[in-house]
Specification:
The protein is of the alpha/beta class. The chain folds into 2 domains: about 15-190 and about 365-375, Rossmann fold (3-Layer(aba) Sandwich), CATH 3.40.50; about 190-360, Rossmann fold, CATH 3.40.50.2000. It has helices spanning about 15-25, 40-45, 45-50, 80-85, 95-100, 120-125, 145-160, 170-175, 175-180, 225-235, 270-275, 290-295, 300-305, 315-320, 330-345, 350-360, 365-375, and strands at about 30, 55-60, 60-65, 110-115, 130-135, 160-165, 180-185, 215-220, 240-245, 260-265, 280-285, 310-315, 325-330.
Length: about 375
């Protein structure tokens, strides 16, 4: 599996869950993260250094590895060329083919490729191995993907036996020949990782000093967030505490002076339940544009699995799934929806159960059945 994130990352994306389900179903998995330069390895954490020379064991015959290469692909002059993109994995220390062989992956049955800069290089290392490709974002809407990567992705899509898409909006972007081999595979959720009785879960330490109702957002704080909307909510409902959990990848200067907006930083996936069950409702306050219209946010199902009401911007990918959430037409409507939730002093247990049931009906186990059916139908494993 060629992935942008390390297997051991605090954040869990779709591929993490799919990898674990392959393992659970008695398949061996080799998770290959985005490559790094030797200097990166020397100056970064113990986690980076400990698997420099060999893969780390996930369990039994499955591994994860963060390769070191003297030719890393980066969005910088000379390092963002087609040559580097294609050959980055050929300059690994130690040689990647040797690493694969020592882990009994010299002849993999299938390449699972995601939107990672190493996907193309891995495909070149194993030109005869069939592949599938998973698209979760409109990457052309991001600023940091070089043209060489975007051009190479089209080649990977053409070569793939099956293309998995997280939303129907992405399907519309593809030419007809690629649509014919595309399968809708939205994000899912492991309900047991989020469903809990509030009384059985201790209050997060940070929440002890944050009284009152809490709107929570989990995930990367990026350019897709409507910061103007968030500031408006904080100012017009001063007793509402707005909680953000995740890495900050955009300018938040317009929010940091607001006393009821709190950035709690990174939390591990397994810690999210604690914060969600002690929150009042979940929010997805996205801007409306080409990037967000195709997003199928995994946080949506995680909120629902926790039993939380959810208020979200009106996005095409959210409207198409018919989830039991409150969708806001605009900023004023978002504000009104929040007031409705806050004024509901006796939340319906039936509504909560409906949210949890929706999450259960969209589990990662069910998503994986789609994956297995497609792979077996194409005789890939």
């Amino acid at each position: 599996m060629a992935e942008a994130l390390p297997y051991a990352a605090k954040i869990r994306v779709g591929s993490h869950h799919i990898a674990n389900l392959f393992i659970k179903n008695n398949h061996s998995v080799f998770w290959l993260s985005h490559s790094r330069h030797p200097i990166d390895t020397l100056r970064h954490s113990h986690h980076c250094k400990k698997n420099l020379l060999r893969p780390s064991l996930i369990e039994d015959t499955s591994f994860h590895y963060h390769p070191t290469t003297v030719l890393p692909f980066r969005n910088h002059f000379l390092l963002n060329t087609d040559f580097v993109l294609k050959n980055t994995l050929k300059f690994c220390i130690p040689a990647l083919k040797t690493t694969f062989a020592r882990s009994c992956f010299s002849s993999p049955d299938l390449l699972w490729l995601s939107q990672s800069p190493i996907a193309n290089a891995l495909s070149i290392l194993f030109p005869e191995t069939p592949s599938v490709y998973r698209i979760s974002d409109r990457v052309r809407e991001f600023d940091y993907y070089p043209k060489s990567y975007l051009n190479a992705e089209l080649g990977l899509l053409k070569k793939a036996k099956t293309i998995f898409l997280t939303s129907r909006e992405i399907y519309k972007d593809l030419p007809e020949d690629l649509q014919q081999k595309s399968i809708l595979l939205p994000n899912g959720v492991h309900v047991e990782d989020f469903k809990a009785n509030k009384d059985s879960i201790p209050l997060p330490p940070e929440f002890e000093n944050i009284p009152g109702p809490k709107a929570i957002y989990t995930g990367t704080i990026g350019k897709w967030l409507d910061l103007e909307l968030i500031a408006k909510l904080a100012q017009e409902i001063p007793n509402l505490q707005i909680i953000f959990i995740g890495p900050i990848e955009t300018d938040i200067q317009c929010l940091i002076h607001l006393k009821n907006v709190h950035f709690l930083g990174f939390k591990h996936y397994r810690e999210l339940k604690q914060y969600l069950v002690h929150s009042t409702f979940g929010i997805i306050p996205f801007l409306e544009n080409r990037l967000t219209s195709a997003i199928n946010p995994v946080k949506l199902l995680e909120y629902l699995a926790s039993g939380l009401p959810v208020i979200a911007t009106k996005l095409a990918a959210l409207c198409e799934i018919n989830a039991p959430i409150l969708i806001a037409e605009n900023q004023e409507d978002f504000l009104q929806r929040i007031k409705e939730v806050l004024n509901d002093t006796h939340p319906s247990q039936t509504a909560k159960e409906k949210r949890i049931n929706f999450a259960q009906n969209n589990s990662w186990n069910q998503r994986f059945e789609i994956v297995l059916h497609a792979i077996k139908e194409n005789n890939l494993i």
